[in-house]
Amino acid sequence: MRRWLVPFVVLVAGGGCGLAPAGPAAIRVDAEMLPWADVSQYRTYRWWAQPIDRQRGGYDEREALIDWRVRQAVDRELAGHGYVAAGTGTADFVVSYDVRLEGTSTSSFQDYLQYRAEGGQKDMGDSFIGYDRGTLVLEVHDVATRRVAWRGTASAIIEDDARGTRIDPAVQQMLARFPAAR
Hints:
globular, 26% strand
């Protein structure tokens, strides 16, 4: 093979890898119990803040839907672990969450392959221009000490997910690492 054809063949073969269909969207999950925390006595919980639809502040319909999805998923998973929402009574722990959306892009072929492996659907040129990565952070605060006892994070590429359908599996994977009530 002629020397000038080798880079062309490598470029075409390598570019073909990027066009392969992406697999299911991967969700990166991490969770940690802080060393000082003793959750063995936890039975009841409440939310740090009221749902968005009960707050003043100009939240749009999409934000209200995401808030509802996060709360429903967390409530369902905590109930499955044996915890009960405290309602108006005193709770053992308080749950808070934060959602972040970060615009990012690929800057190398290796970045592009990682993007595709995580479920990104854009071609190499569009992913170079940019895509969004969403991160959900859940925190459990100990009421007695007012300190964070547990923290979970989930991060995924967000494309064609305006309704927040990745929230349920993200919460499920995070809270799978949270101990059950005793």
